Amino acid sequence: MEKQQLETMLFIEKSYQSKISIKSHSKRRIIADCLNKLTDDEHLSDDIFALTMNIFDRFISKTSSAISNDRYYQLIALSCYNIAKKLRSNVSINNENEKTSLIFSNENYSDEEIFNTEQIISNTLDWDLAYSVPHDYMHLLLKYFLPLENRAQICLHVHTLLSIAICELNTLAMLPSLLACACLKAAIKGLSLQNNYQIDGLILKTMNCNLIELNHTQYTIEQLFQSCLQNIKPSPRRRCLAPIDTSSQQCTKVK
């Protein structure tokens, strides 16, 4: 059953890949950083942030003109976040317990503006909103490739790397499964828990990844991670940039 589920997910994501153009908003990095913090503040799962950025990136790629109005692009970003929460969370969306509602109120967005923006996004994407994200593959990858005693530690590091990657990279630039596998490999390598060549073989056999693309993506993730380490502030606001110690063996541990 799980193997069939994985095969279906891989088939669907590849059928989408050929149809998607890649175009980024000029302030995507700032938007992603704010949305990642908002997801963290609201204690929502990481896949909601990933789906938010996927919806945002796909919407931007389908718009014919650049969005230059700061107020409007913030409304678009928050609306993508609202849509992702409705699709992925069982948290009730109302005006009493949502930080997004407070932001909407502070920015004087009317209910009609919010509704219309969500409708514009949905119509632009032909209501095709429930797209796969890298996190959807993680429970399958961890089950197939890792012994039980290592899963919790690896999972924490993979989610950290995924958050960094999704903040820094347009989510349309690579397949969700490829990004998930690259982050898994980078986490295992950083923690020195398992033979890297053994993981390569399992991933290539199970996920049908291209080895060159996989290694390139892993290298990109590791470079992004090192860049984040160099720019950490004493009191970081984002969970994915939490202080990380590096031992003499290059093992990374999140405090």
CATH fourth-tier homologous superfamily of the largest domain? Cyclin-like
Radius of gyration (Å): 18 Å
Residue fraction in strands = under 5%
Strand order of the largest sheet: 1-2
Largest sheet properties: 2 strands, antiparallel
Pfam family, one: Cyclin_N
Protein name: Cyclin-like domain-containing protein
Domain Cyclin-like: 33-123
Family: Belongs to the cyclin family.
Notes on the structure:
The chain is mostly helical. It has two domains: 21-125, Cyclin-like (Cyclin A, domain 1), CATH 1.10.472; 134-231, Cyclin-like (Cyclin A, domain 1, Orthogonal Bundle). Helices cover 66% and strands 2% of the residues. The chain is built from eleven helices and two strands, in the order H-H-H-H-H-H-H-H-H-H-H-E-E. The protein has helices at 2-17, 28-41, 46-62, 70-88, 99-106, 111-124, 135-145, 148-168, 176-191, 196-207, 211-230; strands spanning 244-246, 252-254. It has a two-stranded antiparallel ribbon. Strand 1 and strand 2 (252-254) form a beta hairpin. Helix 2 (28-41) runs antiparallel to helix 3 (46-62). The radius of gyration is 18 Å and the shape is globular.
